[in-house]
Write a structure and sequence with these properties.
The chain is an alpha/beta fold. It has eight helices and seven strands. Strand 2 and strand 3 form a beta hairpin. The chain is globular. About 9% of the residues have low confidence.
């Protein structure tokens, strides 16, 4: 790997780690909207790896298949005075868990539909996933993701995937969860798309909170933590 690639990956790690809101962020008097995001796609395409890379900045080569749904939250700044609190659902790709994960569809504001760039079958199955989205989700931002761009044995060329996404009126992006390529960009693009839908469609109802509250809560948590750590035990 070249020095430029190493530097790029380090920058990705730093951006991922800095994207959480905390007591040091310039967040006062901003607005924070809560968006529900679902990761969909066949088993083994790397949904959990994308999920973990974005949330924790880590990549586990031995990542196990998700059973049912895993849920975590993370915050991103998406505009000058607007933050997104992302509640991200990592779903199981196996057919036997499909009925369990469908219950989360109707709450989705954004969907990340993942396929494996080295697995043509996972790409062909996108049609089934798109139909399932159309049948169960209304007015959600959808991004199709070709994952594992770091691998050499690519089965789906970029132009083919882009054409498919265009035909389905979706955005398309290629990622590598292993190297961190475009992981942050993926969630930024999704957040911006969801926020634009919020601005354009008054029927979309979202929970929102002024981030001054978050700032004060973070200050209180820090104060309580410091008091706990300074307490002596004999």
């Amino acid at each position: 790997m070249s020095n430029n690639e190493n530097e790029l990956n380090q920058n990705v790690e730093e951006d991922l780690n800095k994207s959480n809101l905390d007591e040091n962020s310039d967040i006062q008097n901003s607005q924070c909207y809560e968006f529900n995001v679902i990761l969909l796609g066949d088993s083994g395409v790397g949904k959990t790896s994308i999920f973990t890379k974005f949330i924790e900045g880590n990549f586990d080569q031995q990542s196990k298949c998700t059973i049912n749904v895993e849920l975590k939250t993370k915050n991103l700044k998406i505009d000058k005075d607007v933050y997104a609190k992302l509640t991200i659902h990592d779903t199981a790709g196996q057919e036997r868990y499909r009925s369990l994960t469908r219950q989360y569809y109707h709450q989705a504001h954004g969907i990340i539909l993942v396929f494996d760039l080295t697995d043509e079958r996972s790409f062909n199955n996108l049609n089934k996933w798109i139909k399932e989205i159309d049948d169960n989700v209304k007015n959600a931002e959808v991004i199709i993701v070709g994952n594992k761009s770091d691998l050499k044995n690519r089965a789906i060329i970029n132009s083919k995937a882009e054409k498919f996404a265009h035909e389905k009126n979706c955005k398309y992006i290629e990622t590598s969860a292993k190297e961190g390529t475009n992981i942050l960009l993926l969630f930024e693009d999704l957040s911006n798309g969801m926020n634009k839908r919020r601005q354009d469609d008054s029927s979309i109802e979202l929970k929102s909170v002024n981030t001054t509250y978050i700032f004060k809560r973070a200050e209180l948590n820090k104060e309580l933590k410091n008091k706990k750590e300074s307490k002596c035990c004999w």
